[in-house]
């Protein structure tokens, strides 16, 4: 799974690409009409992708993200700060199980 999120004054954009071992792909582009930081958008993209993967009964999913912060928080190398970021991290960890 490849995921990315971005934020600007017009809203939040999320992109998720799921690729099966047989090379089938599901591509989702999601527009969110609310304000969020780029880090929040990255988490939202990750969680959206993990939700789709779970709904498809996928197992052994490799996740690729360009967000060093999100990856480092999930790996336990960085701490999440603030209630929102801690909440996103907990949701992502729960879905990763």
UniProtKB/TrEMBL annotation:
Coiled coil: none annotated. InterPro entries: RNaseH-like_sf, RNaseH_domain, RNaseH_sf. Gene3D superfamilies: Ribonuclease H-like superfamily/Ribonuclease H (3.30.420.10). Transmembrane segments: none annotated. GO terms for molecular function: nucleic acid binding; RNA-DNA hybrid ribonuclease activity. Residues 1-97 form the RNase H type-1 domain. This is RNase H type-1 domain-containing protein. It comes from Chenopodium quinoa.
